[in-house]
Amino acid sequence: MERSYEKYFRQNRLPHLWCPGCGNGIAMKAIVQAIEKKGLSQDNTVIVSGIGCSSRASGYMDFDTLHTAHGRAIPFATGIKLANPDLNVVVITGDGDCTAIGGNHFIHGCRRNVDLTVVLFNNEIYGMTGGQASPMTPLGKKATTAPYGSVDRTFDACKLAEAAGATYVARSTAFHVNHLVDMIAGGLDNKGFSFIEACVQCPTAYGRKNKMGSPANMLKWMRDNAVMKAAWDKLPDDKKTGEKFPIGVFYSAAATDYDTAYDAVIERAGGAAK
To answer: Which of 97, 172, 196, 233 has a CA-to-CA distance to 250 between 20 and 30 Å?
Structure first.
């Protein structure tokens, strides 16, 4: 029996090429479940992705999709949104794609408050291109470019998004599936730049290097270390240490989105021309 969410996938492109146990499929399914939950039309929804493990998702999704250049998903998506503001535009990106080569586009997409829903699949590594450390690889964790442990301090992409001007910022994990769907659905509701970090397991490039065990064990690690924001806020600072991290909605506010502001410019320009 076909499940309702299956209509959102290109069945002739499946099965996918992700490694066994990869969390990207969970995050991709969460996106379509959020789209279904909000009742968005497939014909009026566009999926844009960059380059990387995460960004292969757009090829499996039965929408108008765009698989773009490395780090450039957000500017491509901005162009789509400006050309047709009525479209629902979802960006799928990874921790390297978004915060390394695409970091400047990420910051300015937030600053402009472009009406996009950006879902970052954070597997804490460059999984597809050789297992190099990314800007979101935790301190001390190993990668092919950090065989003795990374010494680079880690980006908190959620804090970065909020500071740069995003109007909806949230985080969840591949273990907390229903919660992840809700976080993405909240982003779809927001009229402005929505950023959702989806923590996903990479058993091949990250898990093996850091001796994290099976994919199931990596999911259990998320279960044991993720703390709902309401509980996190009540913890004393000395308990917010180690590998514990908060999940939930970190920021939500109303502000003029970019295409609305741009329409106002067009109106002013038209009036001036007259």
So the answer is: 97
DSSP H/E element including 221: helix 215-225
- The reported pTM is 0.95
Are the C-beta atoms of residues 92 and 55 closer than 8 Å to each other? yes
Q: Is the pLDDT of residue 135 over 60?
A: yes
Structure tokens at 123: 């597997």
Encode pLDDT of 3-24 as tens digits.
Answer: 888 999 999 999 999 999 999 9
Beta-sheet pairing, 88-94 with 64-67? unpaired
- Three-state secondary structure along 81-124? HHHCCCCEEEEEEEHHHHHHHCHHHHHHHHHHCCCCEEEEEECC
Q: DSSP letter at 202?
A: -
CA 72 vs CA 55, 67, 134, 199: distances in Å:
11, 10, 17, 21
Nearest Cα neighbor of 244 from 228, 264, 262 is: 228
pLDDT at 270: 81
- Residues contacting 116, CB < 8 A, separation 6+: 74, 77, 78, 81, 89, 90, 91, 109, 193, 194
- Output the six-digit token pair for 34: 């959020």
Per-residue pLDDT at 11: 92
